[in-house]
Structures are given as structure tokens and as C-alpha cells.
Amino acid sequence: MRQVFRAAKKFLGRGSPEDAFDQGLKAYERGQHKAAFDAWLEAARAGHAKAQHRIGRLYDFGEGVLRNAVDAVGWYRQAAEQGNPDAQARLAEMYYYGCEGAKGLTPTDDALARLFPNGLKIDQDYEEALRWARAAAEQGVVSAQAMLGYMHASGFGIKPDYEEAETWYRRAAEQGNAAAQLGLGTLLAGGYRGKPDPEAARAWFQKAAEQDSPMAWYYLGSQYAAGLGVAQDAAEAAACYRRAADAGSAAAQRALGTLYTRGFGVPQDAGKAETWLRKAAVQGDTEAMVLLGELHSRGHGVQPNLFEAAAWYRGAAELGNRRAQHVIAQMYLAGTGVPKDEMEAARWYERAAGQGDSQAQLRIGAFYAEGRGVDRDYNRAMDWFRRAAEQGNPDAGYNIALFHSLGLGVPRNPATALDWYRRAAEQGSMLAQFRLGAIFASGDGVPQDYKEGAKWSRKAAEQGHTGAQVNLGRFFMQGLGVPQDLAEAERWLTAAAQKKEAAAMVALGELNAIWRPDKDMAQAERWLVQAVELDDDRAKTILEQLRARNATPQDKPGAAMATRMPEAGNGQA
User: Fold this and answer.
1) What pLDDT, on a 0 to 100 scale, did the predictor assign at position 301?
2) Residue 544 CB partners (closer than 8 Å, separation 6+)
3) Is the dihedral angle over the CA atoms 259, 265, 270, 272 positive or is it negative?
4) Ramachandran angles phi, psi of 99, nearest 5°
5) Half-sphere exposure of 557 (CA within 13 A, CB side)
6) Which one, of 152, 201, 164, lies nearest residue 181 by Cα?
7) What PANTHER family does its record include (predicted)?
8) Closest to 524 in 3D by CA, of 508, 537, 540, 539
9) SS3 assignment, position 423
């Protein structure tokens, strides 16, 4: 009898698409995925949307069939176009993130081409993702609502719309979706729609944390650590970070390691700090790698190990961490923890510079200007200096001025040089301030202006520039651009002389021998002798004049001793 029924069923078919769908469900529940596929395929071909969705899932997860994202999308799309919300939601995910082919397969192989004629890969398509996410969200699929909120908040592939993001996040969050609760908290904490609301953010983070969201625990820890929306509580911050760290959050592991480094909320413990930072680092957290580099280079309770530090810095640098690229470049330049290698230093400076590090741009520009680790190339040097200057780096502006002043890679142009010197000086460049002061004092390409010269020399002198201190001392000694003030002159000249600056010693000799009303020849000779010991030719000449004058009295004491005005070559540039 059973054989009769089987024969009749085979002859008459499975019945309606709904019957075939139900039979597929029963087979699937028994773990008979191939039988489920056969039943659902019959219903799907007849236009049954739920069966089409189920066939898509089988291809999506490789149950009863070879896994293939392209075939999965094909069936999902048929179901989605009939309004199936689950298929729409999954389509949105697949288009948003894209789907690679199975690892180890080469789609160009003839056998694979026959097995998968439509290919194996789904490229990202933000427009399609947005279309299907909205369709599913409007039908009430909570995960799609959360995803739609994320898409509008992140702005990947579409223009950010924080109002729309909050709307969809809130719909899903109020229905208990942890991802949406986390996203809504992030929007509120960051003030993306106006003033930050850390208290409201904390409430949503707490709801997500209660659903064991590691990132929610991490954000709660950050709020307790900083006292945002809650009283600062280091111990509570550590407890929250630990919950997230134990769940595998690299950010939380890094944060917990930092707390142990500082002894904030937990006892200071370099060993535990290293353990947690390492857990984050092995997950690819580059900031944790940098912190490990700092830990091993500076000690902080562990035995310093520059080789270990360099390994972590290099690992982070290889993964694109700009700060690590800069540090490892410095280590190669100095030969610290790695062999000294200017070519490697240049390579890492250039990578950091390419990511917008203005100090690295300045340094690699200098490398190209000097031909260190790279072939000398003034054009490339100027390009990097300009990039750094555009970010407000005053030393880069000074270098551009120097290039125009000397005609390196560009036609010599004193006027353009002066503009750049002024711009860099106004931004605080000590070198540019010194150079500008010397230019105005000497009248090099500009009308001589001692007042301007004194103004810029003072700014550089106050930053410790030796040459500027010498020039400023002379301005006060001779009353050039400032009221004559011998005490102030002596103060600045002494500051430079204490740094073994011979020009300052010569000026102090002149100050005591010529400019003081109560001359102190012994003091003058003492300073001049020190300058002579530094092999200063001018000091030798003046000392000889001074001794000759003392041996043969003159009608006009000091007449044979000429003083010197501040000039661009005075002191270190």
C-alpha cells in the first residue's frame, strides 16, 4: 500500500507549494538538509517567497548544498521582491559588507566555473544595502532598523544623517536590540545631534551591557573613568573594563592594561598591564602595540627591553599606526633597539608623513634636502615642507623660507623668503624669529629696522636661541631699536656665554671695556681670553688692541676697538 501511495505522490507531485514548504521545514528540523532543499526548491520555483528565503539560507550557510553567496543572493532577492522581510534584511547585510568566495577556491578553475556559473563573490553595494535595509526596517525587522541606524550614523556609502540614525536606532533600541542601544548611546554621548547627553547615553549603554554587549561595558568603563554622566569612579571603571576584556574586547583589554600601568582603580602592576595589553595586541589593536612598545622601552616596572619595544612598534607600524611609524623611524635613525639604518628611518618617516604626521613630513623633507637615506631631491623636500606648513608646522615654514632665500629647488627670491620667515616666526618658530631679527638688523633685502630686529630677536632669545641672545644683548648694549640698557645687555650676553658662545664672550669683553661708564678691564680681558680659547679670531684682535692700549695710553680710550652690529651670521642658525 505504501508503494502505491509513493507512486501516486510521485505521479501527482507534492501538492501545493505550501505543502512542499511544510515538508521542507519538517525535513530541516530532522537535520535532513538535502531533503529540505529538494522540497523547498519545488515551492521556490513555484514562487513561494518563504521557500525562496529558505533556499537562500541553505546556500548562504552551506547546508545541504555547496555554500555560495551569489546563489544565496539570487534566491534572497526573489523572496525580497515579494516583500519577505527576512530576505530583505539579509540582503542588506550581504550588500553592505560584501561576501568573499570560500577560502582556498579559485573561481577561474574550469571545475569551479561549471559548479558556480554565476561566480562566488558579492561586491559591496551601499545603495542596494540601503534599499533593502529600509524595506525590512519599515516592515518591523528590528535588526534591519538597527542596521539602518548604523548606516545613517556611519556614513559609509551614504551621507551621514544623524537625525535619521537616531530615529531608527531608537525604534530598535526600545524593542530591546542591544546593537541599537549601543548605537543610540554612542550618538547621545558624542553629541552628534547637538549637545552631548552622557547621562542618557549611560542609560542606553547600561541596557546593552545587561545583554552582555562587550562594547557597552567598555563604554560604561570609559564614562566611569572620565566622570561623564556619572561620578568618576576608577574602581567601577576597572570593573566594567574587565567585564568587556574577559569577553574579548580588544579596546577594553587595552584600557584595562592602561589602568594597571597607571595604578588607576587597580593596584599598579606592570606584569598585569603587560598581560592585558598583549591580549589586545595579538588581536591587532595597534594602540595596544604602541603602549607595549612604551612599556618595554621606558620600563614602567618591567625590565626595559628595547628590542621587544622595537618589535611592538614595528608591528603597529606595519598595520598602519602613524604614531608607531614615527617612533620606529626614530629608532632606526638612532639605532635604538634596531640596527642604525637611515634608509629604514626614511621609509618609515615617509609612511607616517603620508598619513599626515606633520613632524614626520618635516623630517622626511629634511632627509630629501640633505640626501640622508634617500637621494637628494629638493623638489620632494619642498613638497613635504609645504604639506607640513599647511598643517601649521612653523619649522616647515622656516625651511621653505630658507629654500627661497638660498635658491634650493626654486629660484632665489628674498621677498618670498621674507614672507615665509615672517609666517613661521608668527607661528613660533625660534629659527625664523632669529633669522627675521637678523634680516631687519642688517637690512638684508629690506629697509634696516632695528626696532623690528630687536622685537624678533627677543622672541627667539626668550626661547633660548643663542645667536638671538647675542644679538639682543648687542641691541641693548648699543641702544639699537631699544633704549640702551647695559644690565639687560649683560643678562642676555651672559646667558649665551654660559652656553660657550664665543660671540657672546666677545660682546661681554666690549661691554666691559668700552660701553660701561665704569670700565672693568679685568673682566673684559677675562671674557676675551675665554673666547680666544675657543679660537675666536675677533677675540684675538680685540684682546691685542686692549693690551696694546693699556701698554700705551691713548687720548681716546677704546678708539681702536670697533664694535659689531647684530647680523644674520651671528650665532647658531
Assistant:
1) 66
2) none
3) negative
4) -135, 120
5) 15
6) 201
7) ERAD-ASSOCIATED E3 UBIQUITIN-PROTEIN LIGASE COMPONENT HRD3, SEL-1-LIKE PROTEIN
8) 508
9) helix
CA dist., res. 157 & res. 507, Å (int):
67
Q: How many helices (H) and strands (E) does the chain have?
A: 31, 0
Could you tell me which of 107, 34, 44 has the C-alpha nearest to residue 75? 44
Return the DSSP state at 135. H
Question: pLDDT tens across 313-345, in order?
Answer: 999 999 999 999 999 999 999 999 999 999 999
Q: Give the C-alpha distances (Å, rounded to integers) separating 552 from 506, 520, 525.
A: 22, 18, 17
Integer Cα distance of 413 and 401 in angstroms: 9
Q: For residue 562, what is the enclosing H or E element?
A: none
Q: How many Å apart are CA 313 and CA 23, to the nearest integer?
A: 59
Q: If DSSP states are collapsed to H, E and C, what string results for 506-538?
A: HHHHHHHHHHCCCCCHHHHHHHHHHHHHCCCHH
| Helix 49-61 with 69-81: angle, nearest 10 deg | 160
All three cell numbers of 394, joined, read: 612653523
H or E, element range at 315: helix 306-318
Does residue 508 surpass a pLDDT of 70? yes
Give strand pairing partners of 122: 99
Q: What is the pLDDT of residues 337-350, one digit of tens each?
A: 999 999 999 999 99
Q: Which amino acid is at 62?
A: G
